[in-house]
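Tutorial sheet, problem 5. The two components below are modelled jointly, 648 residues in total.
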Amino acid sequence: MTSTDHQAEIAADKAARKRAKRMKRFDNPWLNPKLIWGAGLLLAIVALGLIGRMLWNLELVYTGSTPLKLPPLGFENLRKQPGVLDYPLGTDGSGRDILALIIMGAPNSLFVGLLASLIGMSTGIVLGFTAGFVGGRTDDVIRVLSDVMITIPPLLILVVFQSAFGDVSLTMMALLIAGFVWQSPTRLIRAQVLSMKQSGYVQMAQLSGASTTDIMFKEMLPNLIPYLFGSFIASVTTAIVTAVGLEVLGLGPQRIPTLGRTIYEAINAGALIQNLWWWWGIPTLLLATMFIGLLLINLGLDEVSNPRLRKA
Amino acid sequence: MGRIPRKYLINRLITLALTVLIAASMIWVIPRLSPVDPAEIALGRMASGAGAVANAEEILAQLRAQMGIDQPLIVQYFKYLKGALVFDFGLSTATFPTPVSALIAQALPWTLGLMILSLVITFVIGNLLGALMVWDHSPKLAKVAIPAAMVFTSIPPILSGLLLMWIFAAKLRWFPLTGAYGLTVDPGWNWAFVQSVLHHGFLPAMAIVIVTFGFWALGMRGLMITVQGEDYVKLAEAKGLKPRYILYRYMIRNAILPQITAFALKIGLLIAGQVLVERIFAYNGMGKLLYDAILDQDFPVIQGVSYVIILITALSVFIVDLIYPFIDPRIRHEGG
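Model answer (structure tokens):
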């Protein structure tokens, strides 16, 4: 090998390393556009709830606080009434301001989703680790239980519950839904734990005398984080879909405004035939935004945990 | 391939039985924890019809005996389980004394029909579009338009249903707003009725299709990417087979199999979503039956409908689990 060859090689090597460094800086997988857009959409909804609470008159969510069936600003309803600035998104059939309704309602849906999946996830983490680590009978019980529960659609059990008990609070609904979103994280974590148990670094930790909890939480949990996030977002989606489903059946919380309940009231009042599109349309649009945001986050997280998808 | 290992079969059967048992028990236990007394609801319904009821206590006791709720709980529970096995859920309280099973028998064909129709459509469209996203020879438009359409995947079908109802039924009046068939046609096997059913069923089916096809398309895309690099596809290309032939016979055929398992996991959510679609379209299926029962506090019907839907879900999962190795010989049943 001549020295010029050698120098060229070194130069090429340097350039490659420089490129790699730059790629590393810009190619942070957590900064992919899907993730950012998804998070942005959800944050916008949270911001609507928070800023709206400070700026808008929330007394307008009470029945009869506004004129009936006014359209949003810039539109006319069937009675040729124009929209007014006082109620920029229009009003519903019992005299409530739609803007105030969504300011109050949108965060409620997210709250149910987050609380339910936080509880579900925590249960899933504990059960999944236990099943994967302890094995034997315990594993059998947990595995069969999660297999069984995963086929039961939460909506139908909760319909029975809520029609028997009547009004439920938002927190109660979240707790009930949490009972149905622990299965997939449990299965996921159990499978991952079983495969990780065989890996070198876990066996190394075991040999060096680390305690089981240390191995679980210091060695294995960090490697599970992208999966956990993905699973978390999936259960938030399931939880919100279930909550909205119950509300559209008229079974959600009765005394606080929710997006699903607004849609329920709109359908019952015949808003579709009366062309009161803003009444059901605006909550629908907001829910759709929420779900699209969650989907984008999930796709973005897929790219984080599965680098092969990034190049495509 | 071929025979199902007995251990696996037993395992799946136990899971199926446990699923149904646990679901049935939950449905039974939950209303009993509530302070609401179904006999009093029934009495209240009588009272509101007649103005006043004489001998209220006597009638209450009679109603309780009729509903079987004067017996010890454990007896009630086993009676209920025995009934559930043969789809006997007692009598509807709102349309007393119609048996719940008769109401369900009326509603079930509608739900199953709508479900199978929309499932077949989404499965075909979704997988085809997913394959086109990857295929080298597909039109440019497909590669841009399909990912955009994918955004709908995340939206529950009630929302898409509302949108379709508004555009195509309320605004354009191309399709009827609600119901499963027109009021003017006689139910039966005549052309007018079939036409009316199809006309009414189109929007609810579409509401489900547009939000579910993306799920299959996404899965198919991933599988196609894997299949694309396989040697047999390269060989087929080298042999000079037509691209279209390769797409259907070599690529899709191999990629589609894992999609069927995905189907098993998704079916519960699909059915729950459809129940809601039926509710907003006032379609004569289980969803409407359930919704009306909720309004009337008709617990036997609520229980019956929930039970039957859970049973359908569990059975579908069971069947898919069992037949899967027959469809895909590469997969063997895990020793279980």
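Marking note: The radius of gyration of chain A is 26 Å. Full credit if you identified this.
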